[in-house]
């Protein structure tokens, strides 16, 4: 039982650390503007929209940028998505 609690605590600490990294803002200048990626202007960027605006974006990068796990990228999460894409384009 103690090992289970320690494992769960370690998992929670690791998840919190990962979440802190995920919400770190990206560069001040976006490579692809949010308004350009949000094709239907509904205030969120779906993977299909992101893929059209950022053709080299990988699905796993999109999922990592979706910090709250709701399946779409909002303006608060977008800087991280743009950072991931910038990494793909620059490297």
Average pLDDT, to the nearest integer? Answer: 74
Give the strand tally: 2
Strand order of the largest sheet: 1-2
From the spread of the alpha carbons, the general shape counts as globular
Please state roughly what percent of the residues sit in beta strands, choosing from under 5%, 5-15%, 15-25%, 25-35%, 35-45% or over 45%.
under 5%
| Biggest sheet statistics | 2 strands, antiparallel
Helix segment tally:
5
Spans of 5+ residues with little confidence (pLDDT < 50)? Answer: 10-17, 19-29
**What integer value in Å does the Rg equal?**
15 Å
Helix fraction by DSSP (H/I, runs of at least 4): 55-70%
**What structural class results from the helix and strand content?**
mainly alpha
What is the CA-CA span between the terminal residues? Answer: 46 Å
Q: SSE order, as H and E? A: HHEHHEH
């Amino acid at each position: 039982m103690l090992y289970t609690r320690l494992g769960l605590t370690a998992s929670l600490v690791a998840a919190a650390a990962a979440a802190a990294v995920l919400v770190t803002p990206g560069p001040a200048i976006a490579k692809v503007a949010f308004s350009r990626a949000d094709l239907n202007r509904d205030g969120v960027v779906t993977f299909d929209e992101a893929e059209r605006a950022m053709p080299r974006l990988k699905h796993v990068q999109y999922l990592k940028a979706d910090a709250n796990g709701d399946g779409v990228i909002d303006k608060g999460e977008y800087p991280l998505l743009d950072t991931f894409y910038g990494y793909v384009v620059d490297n």
